[in-house]
């Protein structure tokens, strides 16, 4: 039988942004409810060694880090509900009862005085079985997160836009050799980035090439190469590498919120430049759902904190924080 849940603050999403928002909201006695979504823990649940999250002298496992955040959120008073929001009524503001109304896949109804959307974004993948199998063995979608592990090694980046070129340039600070694999004969990246790419002696560009297979070896299995196919001739070749970075874009998990709050053309929720407020008063967005630039666990957690603080001020009738 569907239930109706009431809360001062509803957090949608269980990644670093969502858990942090819930922790701050609970400590402010807002008795938050957090709806986890389909992938509690977000992208960190498919990440092995996390070496750049503050507070840990040695690498920690992504799933373990998210488990610690979940435990802390519950410990301070957050109520977790394992459900997926499939409908949201936000754009017209709170209803006559003073609540925003949202519905879960279970049929449960969530009524909240404020909402923090922290549903994140998902990296786009090539769709290969071998790519999925080796996601914990050398296939990554984040050079900033994992580049450090390839000091002195050879890596490849797939893509032709700004993200791919930026990832390739970043990886030159760690790897000895960086291969950029692109299925066309020209890049979409900005001209200044292309100039930096072409002038970097560590980078080799492979034009008109598509990754057909990710090759692995060893036990546990790790990336040892890729099989490439020429998009013009159909000829195949192999390239030996130690790590593969997929940089063909991200998809924000806007779902039922895309038509309820202002979003950009790609579906990222737009927030005020100085905070996390959306186009709807009382609704805030944090983490990768509104951050298309940094996409780091620590920055997501930071905006989760901001969203909770702004929600608390909103509920208290205090004007939004302004720059001084």
TrEMBL record:
InterPro entries: FAD/NAD-bd_sf, FAD/NAD-binding_dom, Ferredoxin-NADP_redctase_2, Pyr_nucl-diS_OxRdtase_2_AS, Thioredox_Rdtase. PROSITE patterns: PYRIDINE_REDOX_2 (PS00573). Pfam families: Pyr_redox_2. Its EC number is 1.8.1.9. GO terms for cellular component: cytoplasm. It comes from the Bacteria. This is Thioredoxin reductase. It comes from Gluconobacter kanchanaburiensis NBRC 103587. The lineage of its organism: Bacteria, Pseudomonadati, Pseudomonadota, Alphaproteobacteria, Acetobacterales.
């Amino acid at each position: 039988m569907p239930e109706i849940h009431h809360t001062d603050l509803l957090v949608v999403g269980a990644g670093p942004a969502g858990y942090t928002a819930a922790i701050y909201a609970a400590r402010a006695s807002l008795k938050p409810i957090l709806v986890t979504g389909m992938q509690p823990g977000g992208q960190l649940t498919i990440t092995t060694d996390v070496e750049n999250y503050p507070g840990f002298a040695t690498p920690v496992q992504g799933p373990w880090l998210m488990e610690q955040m979940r435990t802390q959120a519950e410990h301070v008073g957050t109520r977790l509900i394992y459900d997926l929001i499939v409908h949201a009524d936000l754009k017209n503001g709170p209803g006559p009862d003073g609540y925003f109304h949202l519905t879960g896949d279970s049929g449960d109804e969530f009524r909240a005085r404020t909402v923090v959307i922290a549903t994140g974004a998902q990296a786009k993948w090539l769709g290969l079985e071998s790519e999925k199998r080796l996601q914990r063995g050398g296939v990554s979608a984040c050079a900033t997160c994992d580049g450090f592990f390839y000091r002195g090694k050879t890596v490849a980046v797939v893509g032709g836009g700004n993200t791919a070129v930026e990832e390739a340039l970043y990886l030159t600070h760690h790897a000895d050799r960086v291969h950029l694999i692109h299925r066309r004969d020209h890049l979409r990246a900005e001209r200044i980035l292309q100039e930096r790419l072409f002038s970097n002696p560590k980078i080799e560009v492979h034009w008109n090439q598509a990754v057909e297979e990710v090759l692995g070896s060893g036990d546990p299995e790790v990336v040892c190469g890729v099989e490439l196919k020429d998009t013009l001739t159909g000829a195949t070749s192999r390239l030996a590498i130690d790590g593969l970075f997929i940089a063909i874009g991200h998809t924000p998990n806007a779902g039922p919120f895309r038509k309820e709050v202002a979003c950009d053309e790609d579906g990222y929720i737009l927030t005020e430049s100085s905070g996390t407020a959306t186009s709807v008063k009382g609704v805030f967005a944090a983490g990768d759902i509104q951050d298309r630039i940094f996409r780091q666990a620590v920055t997501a957690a930071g905006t989760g904190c901001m969203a909770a603080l702004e929600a608390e001020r909103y509920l208290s009738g205090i004007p939004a924080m302004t720059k001084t």
